[in-house]
Amino acid sequence: MNPHLAPVEVPDPTALASVQRLCDLPSPYTTGPEADALFADAMAESHAWHADRSPLFRALLDDAPEVPAPTVGARTRTPLLHANFFKRHEVLSVPREEVFLHLTSSGTTGQKSQMFYDRWTIRAAQRMVARIFDHYGWITPDQPVNYLLYSYEPAPEVRLGTSFTDNYLCDFAPARHTTHALRHTGTGTGHAFDVRGCIDALRRYAEDGLPVRILGFPAFLHFTLERMRSAGIPPLQLPPDSLVLLGGGWKGHADRQIAKEEFYDGVTRQLGIPPERIRDTYGSVEHCVPYVECTHHRLHVPVWSRAAVRDTRTLQPLPYGRPGYLHLVSPYITSVPAQSVVMGDLASLHPGDACPCSLDTPWFTILGRAGVSRNRSCAVAAAELLKGM
Fold first, then answer.
1. What are phi and psi of 170, to 5 degrees?
2. How many Å apart are CA 282 and CA 377, to the nearest integer?
3. pLDDT band at 251, cuts 50/70/90?
4. Whose CA, among 48, 293, 356, 367, lies 20 to 30 Å from 300?
């Protein structure tokens, strides 16, 4: 068995039996009444787990259930915590000595979401990623690749979730060579965008002939392609089984954002990577369940989670197609009561059959960041490195 798909055991197999069964489902886009019933049972176990260990969450459960129930399912309670809550408070449902990993969401300044994971939580989230990679055939242990990572170069002081995730994604295919776009400056958490190094890497990789995997913030890839055009560098032909997997959005650099179709067309035109091998993703340190675009570039909801959209004024659940706050629900997390989180992103939710791909689960579209805040995400901090380039 691939080590990334190996079994992982919940902290309490009796109290979290349904959570275990749900997270053990091998097919990431399973649908049907049995999956829905299992999800509801797992959420009930998750609520009981956190209520026993977190006074905060126990108080949230004292509120009356929502009527009408949100679109995540009539049997599923969804007490709400906003993602911004974790920028101001540290809350744990496990003893601190059981914290296996501590990650943050922001850049070098500003308030940070402080998220703590026990071994089960982070391993379960990683296995979800592996299941989706396996579903799309992206686990290639016998095929070395070259990596260009548009994320933060690791350093002892850097606990950023994006850096952790992108480096984990390098485990699915052996690395011949790796280039980081955001180079550590050698002091603290400082980084600098090395656009020339990215261009040089792409040119070397095109000559090398191995598949190339480009991971990370889309704004930096876009800027690299812009610089190549302005420098008169002709299009490159990377191997067709190369892969572009983006994440983090264009937050903080909206003035340079272009339409997704135009961006993907530019990647295909300048790097030779076919559109079906270019995918965007969505995720956060507050909610580590991976959302990966299908071949038609829709962010389908995997079996281990549910999504809803809520009115920005009343927080009431909205029907398909209406824009509002994205609300994500999953019982996988045991370390922090973050199993029902309202994100800071505006989105619209759509039924599975509104996408022409073979997946039946609902999907969502990210419409932008809600409001204006002094809080900064990884992408906001990263985008600031583009200034003056």
1. -75, -10
2. 13
3. low
4. 48
Closest to 147 in 3D by CA, of 175, 115, 187? 175
Whose structure tokens read 């009561």?
A: 337
Query: Nearest CA to 19 among 49, 55, 43?
Result: 43
**pLDDT at 153 (0 to 100):** 80
Distance CA 23, CA 253 (A): 36
DSSP-assigned beta bridge partners for residue 245:
215, 279
CB 198 within 8 A of CB 180: no
Give phi and psi for 343, each to the nearest 5: -85, 165
What pLDDT, on the 0 to 100 scale, is given for residue 112?
60
Structure-block tokens of residue 314: 């009343």
The token duo for 66 is 């929502």
The secondary structure of 257-297 as a DSSP string is ---HHHHHHHHHHHH---GGGEEEEE--SS----EEB-TTS
Provide the 8-state DSSP code for 73: -
| 145 and 202 Cβ atoms separated by less than 8 Å | no
Inter-CA distances, 308 with 19, 69, 86, 102, 228, Å: 20, 11, 20, 27, 40
Angle of CA points 365, 366, 367, to nearest 5°: 110
